[in-house]
Amino acid sequence: MTGSRIGAVLALLRNTWRGLTSMRTALALLFLLALGALPGALLPQRSLNAPKVGQYITEHGWWGRVLDKLQFYDVYGSVWFAAIYVLLFVSLVGCLVPRSVEYARQSVAKPVLTPRNLGRMPHYATSTVDASPADVLAAVRPKLRGWRAVEREEDGGARSISAERGFLRETGNLLFHFALLGLLVAYAVGKMYGYEGQVIVQADGSQFCNSGVLNYDSFRPGLRVDGTQLDPFCVKVNGFTARYLPDGQAESYQADVQYQSGADLETNTWKPYDLRVNSPLRTAGDRVYLLGNGYSPVFTVTFPNGQQRTGHVQWEPVDQQTKLSQGATKFDPPDVTDPVLRRQQQIAVTGLFAPTAVYDGKVLSSGFPALTSPAVAVQVYRGDLGTDSGRGQSIFSVDHQMIADGRLKKVASQNLGLGQQLRLDDGTTVRFDGVVPWVNLQVSHDPTQDLVLVFAILIIGGLVTSLTVKRRRVWVRATPESGAEGGGRTVVEVGGLARTDQAGYGEEFTRLSGELLAAPRQRAEQDPE
Amino acid sequence: MTVNTTLATYSDWTYATAIAIYVLSMLFYLAEQAFGRFARRSERVEAATVGGSGGGTAVLDRPAPPRVTPAGRPLPERLGRMGVALTVLGVALHASAVLTRGLAVHRVPWGNMYEYGSAVCLAAMVTWLVLMRRFPIRRLTGFVLLPIVVLLFLGGTVLYANAAPLQPALQSYWLVIHVSAAATSSGILLLPGVASLLYLVRTANEHNPRRFARLAPRLPGADMLDRLAYRTTIFAFPLFTFGIVCGAIWAESAWGRFWGWDPKETTALVAWVVYASYLHARATAGWRGNRAAVINVLGFAVMVFNLFFINLVVSGLHSYAGVNG
Ligand code: HEM
């Protein structure tokens, strides 16, 4: 009883496995993969643009929330997408194992027996010649160079050749599928052990070191990365140059950097590098990319007691075309140690920055992304910036909760050109002193990407082989003609079969069979006994 | 480097003329269809299907070319030939539009969507001319020209971008390699889509002669269409794969990762998987004929979708197109 139950379970498992590894299932899964990947191209994705996802959800109400529940904004990390590719993966393995076995078996096997009735083959040709079957085969043999052929003696003095070629097609096909498998595995491993971090660095000689996760503005680790073992290196950004066409389109971005890694870290040696958009810095197993850029306006605040503070922090471009930017540069009053007092006198300079000022009345906007006539339209706030509140702070704006609570007040609002200043009621002045460009660097680490490339190349190689090589079979049979006038004459038959779905064997067969049938005759003519 | 505006203008004119010539040659094919009921049978292909390992094997021989009547060519034949002459002229103009655009901007002429679309269509048309020399498919040219003209028209109006130098992300020799592979393979892949669509029309008619009764009899045999679709697909597919791989290599140096699920990337992968399904379907019992053709048409749809919709509606890293920037 238990025996039969185990049998039933085994049968179920076997059938499931067969079903999963059948061509039909592979087809269905491939289709699902295509279908499943598509929403990721159509809907905003968290991994690419998180704010847009939020916006999409608010705009689409319950529908947006349902999509969120179903992980449609993280398609490529979703459970259902993973299910599809894991199944496909299993199906692929299940398909490849038996095919590899079959492949190995076939690679040592002899070509099949010549079918009894060649006339039934899809391609067939025949003729009669004045030569013995042995001579016929001797004449035909050289014409089948490059084919895997075997000769056999048959009943009644007949002889035949069974030949096939195009075995390489299966080689290519297996190579392709195995390489695909390899690529998927390598990609997954790379995702697990890789990381990606972004950081903004002022292009005034400031530097960034890949020594810890905290040095980054944002950091995306792989599952197996905890951020404690980053490959150490440092990058110093000495300058940044952007060139623009008259219509504002960027022509080139170039950051003048220096870096140190490995032994250079100990000796504190800096190597120069010309960092550009299409040429990342590759060092210490990592890559450093120049992704974005912008401006940091420099402000000097002179407090009533005469003390000065100069500061600049990146402002974010709100318009990529003109580099109109917004931000908040924050100052602590000097020499105030009492936290309560200090929290009443913090200053934030916020507003808009335009590299090329254009005014519509008093409203500032930017006409061009390069620094031709920089200006700012600032609102100055004084009070408690909320830096001690424990709440997360945006570096691009002031804490609006503080304004709502009346603890942070707007005390001035004015347009400033370079070198101009404004004065607050208590005598504090804020001067717009200059501009420093900043660059957004991305550091990427992917230990398997070279391996992925190798597999990709194998995929292409396998594909080309498998799609261009044709599998063909051809048989030649030479039978002594029977009957009264049969003396010494031989019937030669040629049959052909195309084993893969490659049309056009007809022409090829006509040519080949023509050659094969002509060969004995030519040979007989060349040496007539 | 500055743009040579004279050449750029010249390129625009040539482009418009090429479209006009294509439309004109379509009219000739249409006239050929309208007048020509002859030669229907002469191009029919005999098919024999035999069971073999790995599925059936369709054995198709190239049919004998239609005989030319000695006493001058009949009218439809002449119309068709004029159509071909016009198509060749159209392709020549189209090619020179692409070439002059490249000369005007001193770079490869596929730096934005308008230019890319034009290159894709050119690849399709050149391939078609080559195929026309090898297969008796002249009468299908009108069907091929239809999507091409639509694409070129949309490209020249909706997607049009003024001649300009490249933005920094595009300044790389990978632009030459990746985009030429992508454009060529995408162009070629437009053809099997048309062939498979006509295949469906043809087989629908074979099952029920009342369906597509006017159109179907003028098409080549179903197996000829199938063969055309398959051959062009397997030619373009490895090239398409190569194009995607080159794209990944380029993305690694321009965007910081070789694969990032950018909408354009993703849709290319989807198209790739659909074509892989097509090849699988051709090797799966019961899927070889109509179903494979449907999949191939789907592939076509995804390609066109990728060409237009993705760049216009969805914004990703690839939308430097000069359209919504
Ligand atoms: C990750 C999913 C897969 C992809 C992207 C894929 C892709 C392809 C491609 C592009 C081809 C045509 C090129 C060639 O013949 O080498 C092909 C052929 C083939 N695939 Fe796959 N494949 C996948 C999974 C599978 C699975 C799971 C199976 C087994 C059930 C399978 C079995 C086959 C077979 C038998 C052929 C040969 C068809 C022929 O003889 O024309 N594949 N595959």
Write a structural description:
Chain B: It is a multi-pass membrane protein. Chain B: GO terms for molecular function: heme binding. Chain B: Residues 110-318 form the Cytochrome c assembly protein domain. The complex is a heterodimer of chains A (529) and B (325). Chain A has 529 residues and is of the alpha+beta class. Chain A has four domains: 2-106, no CATH class; 111-166 and 470-526, Sirohaem synthase, central domain (Double Stranded RNA Binding Domain, 2-Layer Sandwich), CATH 3.30.160.110; 189-293 and 442-459, no CATH class; 299-433, no CATH class. Chain A has eleven helices and 23 strands. In chain A, a hairpin with a 2-residue loop joins β10 and β11. Chain A is elongated and about 130 Å long. The termini of chain A are far apart. The model of chain A has no long low-confidence stretch (mean pLDDT 89). With 325 residues, chain B is mainly alpha-helical. In chain B, β1 and β2 form a beta hairpin. The chains are: A alpha+beta (529), B mainly alpha (325). Chains A and B meet through α2, β8, β11, α10 and α11 of A and β1, β2, α6 and α7 of B. Protoporphyrin IX containing FE (HEM) sits between chains A (21, 23, 26, 30, 88, 91-92, 95, 173, 176-177, 180, 463, 466-467, 500-501) and B (54, 276, 279-280, 283).
